[in-house]
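Recall that a protein's primary structure is simply its ordered list of amino acids. Everything else, from secondary elements to tertiary packing, is in principle encoded there. The following example makes that idea concrete.
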Amino acid sequence: MLYCPKCSTKLKQQNISGRIRPTCPLCKYTSWGSNTLGVGGVLVDGNKVLLVQRAQDPGRGRWCIPGGYVEVDEKLEGAVHREILEETGLSTEAVSLLGIRDYPADTPERDHDVYFVFLMRLLGGILKLDHHEVSQAGFLTLEECLKLDIPPVSLYFIQSVLQNPQEDRGFLREDQIQLVGLKSELYSRTRV
């Protein structure tokens, strides 16, 4: 980044918090780095889980739980619902947050990538694929999943849900806590 995204002034390199960061000398904007947020959803039907086969890179041809990137003005639960609907035509809602995968930037060209995985509940719809993003989709058993090329994170959550169907699953959205920001949400394993 060479110019300030707020006022277009040429950025200067400054030491802030022990790191050299692009900073605007006029409006004091500081670039704290680049981050991406992604979501995935585990949707179970009996002893099967919904998987999609990616039709584009990265990961073209691999099978995974449906999901994608979070828009800057979007809640996590809204993003995972939207992504599943776009990719498969199925309407869902988040039941709980199963886990988070944190992938800090390990090379200069990478963003810090954080991926949130939700347990989903089917609300309705008919399986209809967006062939731009997904080449195939279907509900598969764990045995069928183990025969496919599935990223380890997707397989981990598939196994945890299918092998432990009655266990407490993840973090629940806590609606009783007053938070700053109209769209802010808190997920917790405990209730006050």
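The chain is about 15% helix and 40% strand. Residues 52 and 137 are 4 Å apart (CA to CA).
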